Input
Amino acid sequence: MSVTPEKKAPGVRVSGLSVVYRTQAGELPAISGIDLDLVPGTITGVVGESGSGKSTLALSLLNAVQPPGRISAGSVEIDGLGDVVKLRGEELRKARGRHIGYVFQAAQNSLNPLKTVGKQLLDLGRSHDVADLRGLVREAKDLLGRMGMDGARVLDSHQHELSGGMRQRVGIMLALVLNAHLVVLDEPTTALDMITQATILRIVREVHEERGLTTLVITHDLGVVAEVADRLAVMYGGQVVEQGPTMEVLSAPRHPYTQGLLQAIPRLVGDIDEARALPGRPPTLGTIPVRGCVFRDRCVLRMDVCETEKPPVVSFGTSIALCHAVEAAGRDGRAGSPRAGEIQEVVGAQGATGVHEVRGEQS
Amino acid sequence: GSTGDKPAASGGSGGSGGGLYTTIDGLKPGLDVNGPINPWNPKGNAFVGLNAMRIAWSKNHMTDPNQFYPGIAESWEIAPDNSSITLHLHPDNKWSDGKPVTAEDVKFSIALAYTQGSTAFAIDPGAAGAASEVEVVDDKTVKITQDMDNPSVTFVRGVMDSYIVPQHVWSSVLTADFWDKLKAARGEGAEAEKAREEITALSEKVLAFAPPKDVSAGPFTLERMNPSEALLVKNKNFYNAANVGPDQVKLLNYTGNEQIWNYLIAGKLDNAPFTAVPADVMKRISSTPGNGVIKGYSPVSLGMAFNQAKKPYDNVHVRRGLAYLINRDEITKIASPEGGTPALTTTGIHQKPAAEWLGADLATLEPYKLDAAKAEEEFKKAGLKKDGGKWTLPDGTPWKFTVNVPAPFSDWISGAKAITSQLTEAGIDAEVVTTADYPLYLKEIAEGKYDVGFWLIALGPAPYNIYQRLYGASNGWSILGGKIKHAEPGKNGNWMGGPETIEVDGAKVNPGELTAKLNSASGDEQKKIIGQLAKAANQDLPVVQLWDYVNTQFVNTNRFSGFPENDSDLLRQPSGVWIQLGMVKKQ
Amino acid sequence: MITGKNITKTFRQRGGVLAGREVRALRGVDFAIEKGGAASFIGESGCGKTTLGRIIAGLETHDSGEITIDGTPMSPLKPRHREPYFRRIQLIHQDPYSALNPTRTIHQTLNAPLVLRARQTGRPRSWVDERAEELLALVGLDPAYVLPRYPHQLSGGMRQRVVIARALTVDPDMLVADEAVSMIDVSLRLGILALLKDLRERLGVSVLFITHDVATARYIGDDGELYVIYRGQVVERGHVETIISAPVHPYTQSLLSAIPVLHGLEQPGEQRVVPTEALDESHHDAGCLFARRCPFRTERCESELPVLGHGEGTPQEHACLHPERRSVVATPIGRG
Amino acid sequence: MFARRLAGHLARGLVMILVVTTVSFFVIRSVPGDPMAARYEKLVEQGMSPGAAQRAVEVLYGFAPTGGLWQQYVDYMSGLLRLDLGQSLLVPGVSVSTVLFSAAKWTVLPVLAGTLLSFLIGVVMGVYAAIRRSGRLGDILAISGSLLHGVPQYVLALLLGAVFTTLLPILPTSGTADIMFEPGFNAGYIGSLIEYATLPVLTYALASYGGWILAMKSSVVTVLGDDFILAAELRGIKRGIVFRYVARNAILPLFTILALSLGMLFGGAIFIERIFNYPGLGLMLIDGINNRDYALMGGAFLLITAAIIVANIVADLFYTVIDPRVRSGEGAA
Amino acid sequence: MTAPVIAAGGGRAALRRNFWRGVWRVLKRKPSRMVGMVIVLGFAFMGAFGPMFYPDPLPRDTAALYAPPSWAHPFGTDFEGTDVLSLLVTGSRYVLLTALVTAVITVVLGAAIGLFAGFRRGRWDTVLMRITDMKLTIPGLPLLLVLSTIWKFTSAFEMGLVLGLLGWGGVARAVRSQTLSLRERGFIEAARGLGLSTTHIIGRELLPSMAPFIAMNMLIAVTGAVYAQVGLFFLGVLPFEANNWGVMLNLAVFGGGAMSSPAALPYLMAPLLAILLLTLGIVLVVDAMDEIFNPRLREE
Ligand SMILES: Nc1ncnc2c1ncn2[C@@H]1O[C@H](COP(=O)(O)OP(=O)(O)OP(=O)(O)O)[C@@H](O)[C@H]1O
Ligand SMILES: Nc1ncnc2c1ncn2[C@@H]1O[C@H](COP(=O)(O)OP(=O)(O)OP(=O)(O)O)[C@@H](O)[C@H]1O
Ligand SMILES: [Mg+2]
Ligand SMILES: [Mg+2]
Output
């Protein structure tokens, strides 16, 4: 195991990925037909509300969707590994950890409470047939040190002796210590406070660059993505409704959901009256529309076609959005996309006051 | 696949090759590893006939209590007036450690018996049948004299029943001045009182004494034991060792009858004393090869006793009515098919000795054959009324018949249940009431908290013992310093509450006094008294006799032979006695 | 009007292995909230915000200091007599999932306090149902839909609204919202914040808002006051907008710097402050509580405990020995 | 920390023992019935003359406690201070502690064996039931577990007894060992011990097996749902190691129950001992009650109670030692 | 969302209807629960009405003691020639009634003490829990054995009372810890903050949340009580009642030799099977408890 990481960030191509969960009402899709490319060496951020399928997507990258769920269609091609969906047994196990590092949503609880971090590190090494366990420990201490912690002390600690932020960093260390170059972080900062969140995000960014990784960060907080990600994918109801370079998507959101989301984020500066919540509520497994656009129930730009037709992929340079309205706007020759302001105008035109708007939530 | 024959193969210790005799100590439900090897200790590991020796073994004659087989004593002479007995020990009998058994050992053991207050060796002055002097005549001869101020016909039996232990093992228990103290205790006054107290205080010490190892003059010594079994090996120094069949004896522990049944079905026991056995189990036992049954007399009967202080049982007609109404054949069949014979009548005596004691008179007594019409007649005489098929008391309240039995005695419960079923069918509202255990049962009936309850009677062979159950303490009569006293019903343990005098053949008799007299009366006088008492019991019915127990013993002749015959007078002695007398032979 | 003077609270572990360990959750906090006013408490995890909120709502007792409600000091009163005062301060839980009884329908949940209320005020039974519908409408829910349902049949946002409606059943003077939006979906957060603001404006309910996200504090009302708490001590206090635009305490600055920047829409503040160490509550220093983590600490900070007060030239109060305005807040691109 | 905890436990345990002893003392003394009367009746039935039986029984009075109830209590308690439980009436002249300990041996060994056996099998099957919980087999395991857990011991004992003594009589149903074997460490004796203990042990194992399988199943299900297991899998940890993670975490709470149930074992086998006539504490207690041997009853209560208290303490301290969360204090918060 | 809108006011009856419909759904979900329910209801029916089908006293046939099973006597006859099945049925009333009384007392007492301790906390809690600990430390069966010599449990209610008084400890302990954890839940705190009465909080908020737990304990207490009393009767320390299941066991084993000869085996098996079946029924029903009382699981 080489201590100096080679730069060999893999590319990842998710195509047509669908995941279904078996429920009382039969198998329902949590993700349907997602296409997503992770560019080698970049950080991709996935945002979406609770239940939009983010964790499911993240687990799919490791072919680790838990029963009663299963990947029903599609493929996840990872450079150097091939289609992960087809991997089985030992192959799959070896891929996890060594090639793909995963940082858990609730990193707080991602460590065995009965074992010290160091012992779990050794378990990890043994599982992946690392010959030089000392080297592994050295590497781990090194990583921890770079994340601002006393490596020796941390390796000697049990989970409960570490604070939330520390555990999260240990999680990152364990994901990276085997020199994985694809790292998936599922909500790495949820339940942490602002300062710790900022620290973790900084570390993610630094480690990413230092080690030359391909990173996927999953979060429900647009701010987090904006802070760390190069590219951004917005998920809604099991679909990626918009994706593109972060700067681009944020400064010129095209999908009405992205626009609404951006507007709904409380900001430190600016007119507070400009911000408002999205009407309605996010769909759950049972309420995701099967046909047409998943967002249409909450969409201010809804058209008849949204009820029946899957939204088309509209691309703008390196970004794409899945929306009938955007497509229509493009066809109408409007420049690129409706700007945020314009959408606001539409909303305003519908005369939504705060109260009425929220009342719409139960529709 | 039982363990019965395995040990011989896999080799225990002791002289293997000789027979292993397996039995149960019927006198001691529950072996206890903690018990000392001490015959006076109720849980002591001294087993009668095996490693606990008595002077002689009672024959349990039906009418004469003073017939014996030799034990420690080879022979004896009883003075014609019962005033003394001279014992002659076996000349070459030795303790298992090789020391000879001497007259001093006997005297010493008698001293120990004094502390335990055994019948013949009571220290309280005036006790009936107590010894007044113990005299070592020579090394092998002892003479014991009865205090004739208050003689008893069972004096000899009391002497013979004494356990003999080696003085050289037990010497530490008694001080040298014991006999002086005893003499002092015989007197009157404070000094005597103090001496008596000192002797009584010794009783605990004697009872608790635990010899480090078994030194016995019996045919066996205790080798080892565990909570469920005890192993005894042959005592080579026993005077009759040559004729002792088995080399080893295994005693099996039991806490419930069902264990004995299982042992018997498995053919594990060479001998088992009497236990109640259900008919089907009996069938299975009999089908085991080699198993056989010897039946003999067992001087016990089961009576249904009335609390005569309670209405309507104070009325003799009610009691008689019930006697007519209860189908004793059926009850015996249900409750004790193997261990009992239905009582032919109620005399207070077991049927067999009754025939001996009463002769032709027995036939003149009322047999109380099942007869519903007579029962009705008697009930009517008592003023009971039948109302819509149900009997009510004279005052019109319903008659609720409850019969008490202790819960652990399942044959009694079955019997009681059968009685209530019969009575219910006859229109009496009847119910069984059980009491959690025997001590509680005894306490409750003693306190009069019952209407009708089960009670063992006819405990022979001594005639006093027989009637003591009907006309003794439980019915108000007690002997204090040779004087007979009667307590009111409900007082001083009088729970039967019968009348103090009963009219028999036109004459008033006091059954308590008559019973007490049995202690010292002899010969014809005894016969006469017993005739009177039997009549009294038959007419007055303080109890309804339900069944007479049968001494049903089990033997297995696969390994040993020479067991007593049916009705043998040895049947009430444990098989250790049979063995030491040289009867039991290896097959 | 509720004021607190020098409120302290120390948790002592009883029994167990931790027996004897102390946590100083509050170290002499002063506050004052006007009728109809708004105040926000911000701070890192574990710095005592919830504790303070619960003390204010009467759900926890404090060790020393005095809370005065509408001019009546609470400490001389027996617990029984304090209740009516505290009843008028209602706590909105962070977690709308556990705040509603899963075995009771919303109708039942709202009815119970309303029936009590009707009894107290002598209103007829019929008022109860009317009022329930009125309150639900007030929080922006459709009564016909919501009333017969169990909590699990509602979304997080709806649940939080029900919780607020329930708090309103007793006509409170003040709502204490402890991280009331942190568990609500992003797209709905603003709705709840707007509702709280709306309630302030329409019903005159004052709102005490507890959060670790400074940005949300603005949305309760622009006239609100902001209390920055660190390890049980208020380190900066003032008008929300003032503190956001001109924080002087390095801790406040750290908090504000930590807010993610929407790259593309905003540019980061130039002087972002990052604490040098992580929070360690067990540490006891004589001086400034923040000194260990402060990038600007001097020797003085380690020995001298600064107290909250008006420094020269700052409109807000602060507890820093070296107050200095830093521009840490991201600014929208194009506005400067 | 540990020492302080231990001291606290011991103090509380002593108070508990004091109270329980007091309560049981008065309850026991209020049991009606005269032990002497019962013994007298027995002797008479055995053919002893009434007078002799009377005197023989009187000797036993020397072993019965004397004085008023209060005096007896004071005597008893002061005896306890000297660890003297008094004299047995059942086996006069033998101290209660001797009787107790010789009986306890026969309860502890088989019940311990039964518990451990069922613990091992139950834990393994529990893991299996948890892994297969959605399948038919898991259902069957769980329901059979609940059933065995729910069915009283005596039902199992009677069923086993009926099978192994009536239908195919291959196992002994009473006693501890064949006396023909010299006690000691030899194959014959040990084989005999095992043979005799089979039915009690089997019954006890069956009766407690259900509890273990249920407890282990739910514990494993809980742990399987814990994030760290998934996290370990996602790190590519070997199945064997993950299984160890699950097992260790799941079994931890069971050790507490194990310790507690070992504490209960002293009082736990009355039915089994009665049905199989195994001479342990239960049978001894029944004997004690039937013979109104107050000292013996009191001693048995004390022993049983003390065992439970000690087990509680051990369980707690054990937890402190093996669970790092409690060890350093966080879990107790 | 197109769920039917239920009128807010008149919802009570509808709620109840919904509840039963939910229960039905829960039972239907697994056939085993149905079986369990049928068994439990069957026993309840047997206890309530069974004795009415038989004459009192039960007929006996002294010519057929311990008769083997036959069409006339599916479980054979007892020592007296009475049909074992009829004994079993007529005896179920006492057994089940005692069990019910015990269960009610156990649960009511246990829940009350647990709730009180958990809700009040502080000194009351300490005192009550010390008492509970003490209670749990005193070995139950030995104590019962001793008590049975002191007290004759003649009626089902007395028996139930004693068993209940001895049995509440575990429930109290568990209810207390549940209460403590529920207490920290937002909705209880909110209810207190709203000034709702303690009765309301305990009766309407806490208890329903613990309903599945309490119901489960109740069922378990039922089985426990059946076992305890049958066991005591089996050991023979309680009053005799020919048709009591425990007495049947006792007589079969110690009187009839069921463990020695197959003749009395049916007599032994009948009560054993009854107990097994009852246990099975209760186990299967307990499995459904959680879902029955949890509206979320009920409706899924
Ligand atoms: N085990 C499961 N069984 C049934 N449905 C599931 C399961 N796990 C997830 N789902 C459903 O799949 C959908 C996507 O879930 P997922 O966990 O991927 O969402 P998420 O975006 O990560 O949400 P969150 O922000 O809450 O973590 C949700 O509607 C969820 O209800
Ligand atoms: N009941 C309690 N017992 C002991 N310590 C407590 C208790 N409640 C709170 N604390 C401690 O008091 C301190 C302040 O806690 P508090 O919950 O008020 O913080 P907070 O600011 O609300 O944090 P968060 O942002 O995590 O909610 C913490 O260290 C906490 O551990
Ligand atoms: Mg997720
Ligand atoms: Mg908080």
